[in-house]
Amino acid sequence: MQKSGRTIYIVGAGFAGRKIAEEIKTKGTFGRLVAFLDDDPGKIGTKVDDIPVLGPIARISKIFETHPADEALIAIPGATNDQLTTIYEHLSSASFDRIRILPNLAQIIDGDAHLIQTREIAVEDLLGRTPVRIPLKETLSYLRDKRVLITGAGGSIGSELSRQLLSAGAERLYLFDNGENNVYEIEKELKILQEEGVGEKATLVPVVGDLKDREYTRFIIQRLKADIIFHCAAYKHVPMAESNPVEVIKNNVFGTLHLVEAVRESSVPRLVLISTDKAVEPRYVYGASKMISEELALARNNGNQHFMVVRFGNVLDSRGSIVPLFKKQILKGGPVTITDPRATRYFMTIPEAVSLVLKSGGLGTGGDLYVLDMGEPVPIQELAEQMIRFYGYEPGTDIPINYIGLRQGEKLSERLWAEGETGEATDFQRILRLRHRSRITGSLEDLIRDLKPVCFFDPLKPETFRDRRVLRSTLARHIPSFEVPDDEPRY
Q: Which of 12, 160, 227, 343 could form an SS bridge with 354, CB 3.0 to 4.6 Å?
């Protein structure tokens, strides 16, 4: 292989930076290391394996004049968001044509840094709060030598769960998704990570399937014999759910029902359902579907099998979040569209949310609903302005901001629990146990019975099949907060 002629600075001469430097030197295909950059006075002026340590980082523009390079690689996984923002601003003042970052991941904090984990720095690395540090290998000890199934393994949360689970010492990881390409891509990525020394050598098993198919779900759960299931699969785009309400209920509610039933029949010891703050007093279809899913999981908990729910708010850069949309709008020159200047959302990075999910999965004995402490809600306008500045523009001058009004299914703000519910501290920071009460009027069984002929053809009730009005009126009858549009078509 021809060696790269690129020259590189590594920002951070700590354990992660040194390990990345060793890998660059050993492989010899990624370029030549020019120097380390660091702010530690005790390191500046020394050498690490004959590579000089220069600094402080704030002087990079001056240093660059005599020691130019093609790219900078930030290798400080313990840096706070404010520190990363400052470092990025300094590096941007030099003429690097590329800035990469070793993300702030729990498995890296455990001392497992690899070049394969680096990527182009992105705006979400600088947004939100500083993630809590979790000793991931210790946290995942309950999964060692276990068979772990992730539904929706190709999605934003499912794929990050899969990456972090490489460090769990699991016997097998079942990568389940209804999208063939999703399964292919995450399996390929995990194999490359394993080849580069990330995590442990769990057997990866790709599984393509659809939880809406009850008999298939029973068959595959019986066959795989998983010890724990992380249920991430769901349709989650709010406006899309309003346009396709029957399919969302069929997928999110009955997919969960079929999985829960199959798990009970097959005696799978533990199920963790991933939920959302939109399940709190839902007004529209997506939130209602997740609220019902929560109830289905919690209602099936018993002494020998532990079913639990982990609920959290928006995560930065997930497929359903506004961050990717804002990126596209900024890169095409605007405008950036915001529903309302008063709108706020909770935000957390995907890696932090997933690390907390994995921690929650090992807590308690089941039957609990855990809520991730998301910090303070972030004004959407502030988020948009931060992103515009990251890309080198001035909000309102270079990139206009337009207000488009709330779309159907959206709220000005979200809450993590309903009136009358309270979050209690657990033994771990940023994980709360919710004193939960069912918010369904009547029985859960009656609600499922009423929804079923709308989603699945029943020859005794052919007139209700795919009838959106029947669907929404049924949800409104059982969920007090649910709203029915006046102009809802039947189909």
A: 160
